[in-house]
Automatic annotation (TrEMBL):
Its main location: membrane. It comes from the Bacteria. The chain crosses the membrane at residues 7-25, 31-55, 67-83, 95-115, 122-140, 146-166, 187-208, 214-235, 247-266, 272-288. Belongs to the EamA transporter family. This is Drug/metabolite transporter (DMT)-like permease. Keywords: Cell membrane, Membrane, Transmembrane, Transmembrane helix. It comes from Breznakia blatticola.
Length: 296
């Protein structure tokens, strides 16, 4: 693969992560009007419609390939977001943030099993340890400490595993040669389809008057168009170019982006501990990303 293609893949991954790292602001605004599952369903319905309008051509494939799309929709859309949202109601946001960052480790295990061409070396795991220490320092500033909440923490762990499964599915789907927008749209379809049964026993009762506020519309558009339709397309393209393993480690950067946006938008204090944490996280990313440390 050409060097410029690799650079383009890294740029796509970083842009995606920067946007995903700032979605907490929009979600926080929308939680005053909607439940977590309502926000999730609305954003992906709008995103699916947008992608369909952009690329309405039907997708044709063999039944065995269809299973990959089902797996991607269930793991990356339905399970990942539902497990994360439920986990946040049972354990602290800090715990969830730390545990979700384990996703690249799960991806490395699955890639070794299912993607024979992607095998991490020891430096990948050194980078993982450095990044995890950094994430803990960022997520637990001041005098906070990690408190175990078994059910919530376990659900967050399952969410990280679900994202790893999604990464593997996307890598295999990318080899089939479908246009990225078309394949993302098809994944969203299955994600929404398997999400619907959960709506009947979760807090789901959308009212039209909730959509009359400008902040609501603006934040829904940001989450659905920017963070869902556009970002999943750019992320899936990054996975196609870089592979499941090299793209997954960009997840380390999410807490750093959240930290920077908190300082800029919410005027939160930047402490030496947070700076050290951000530095370790970026060091972990560099170690895990280096071409010398991952065989492809």
């Amino acid at each position: 693969m050409k060097k410029q293609d690799q650079v383009f893949g890294h740029i796509l991954a970083m842009i995606t992560i920067i946007i995903w790292g700032t979605t907490y602001v929009s979600t926080k605004v929308l939680l005053a009007y909607f439940s977590p599952v309502e926000i999730l369903f609305i954003r992906f319905v709008i995103a699916f419609i947008l992608l369909y309008l952009m690329y309405p051509k039907p997708i044709k494939m063999e039944a065995k390939h269809q299973l990959l799309f089902v797996g991607a929709g269930i793991s990356g859309i339905t399970l990942y977001y539902l497990l994360e949202n439920i986990a946040l109601t049972m354990t602290s946001a800090s715990n969830v943030g730390i545990i979700i960052t384990i996703a690249p480790f799960f991806t490395s295990i699955l890639a070794t099993i299912f993607l024979k061409t992607e095998k991490p070396k020891i430096q990948f795991y050194i980078g993982f340890v450095a990044a995890m220490i950094g994430v803990i320092l960022i997520s637990l500033p001041g005098d906070q400490s990690i408190s175990l909440n078994p059910v919530g923490d376990f659900l967050a762990l399952l969410a990280a595993l679900a994202w790893a499964v999604y990464s593997i599915c996307i890598r295999k789907i990318s080899d089939l040669g479908f246009p990225t927008i078309q394949m993302t749209r098809h994944i969203f379809m299955y994600g929404l389809l398997f999400m619907m049964p959960f709506l009947f026993f979760m807090d789901f009762h959308i009212q039209l008057e909730d959509f009359q506020s400008v902040p609501v519309i603006a934040n829904l558009l940001f989450l659905s168009v920017g963070a869902s339709a556009i970002c999943f397309v750019t992320w899936n393209q990054a996975v196609r170019i870089l592979g499941a393993l090299k793209s997954s480690v960009y997840i380390y950067v999410v807490p750093v982006v959240t930290l920077v946006s908190s300082v800029i938008i919410l005027d939160e204090k930047l402490t030496p501990v947070l700076l050290i944490g951000a530095g370790l996280t970026l060091l972990g990313l560099w170690l895990s990303e280096s071409n010398r440390f991952i065989k492809k």
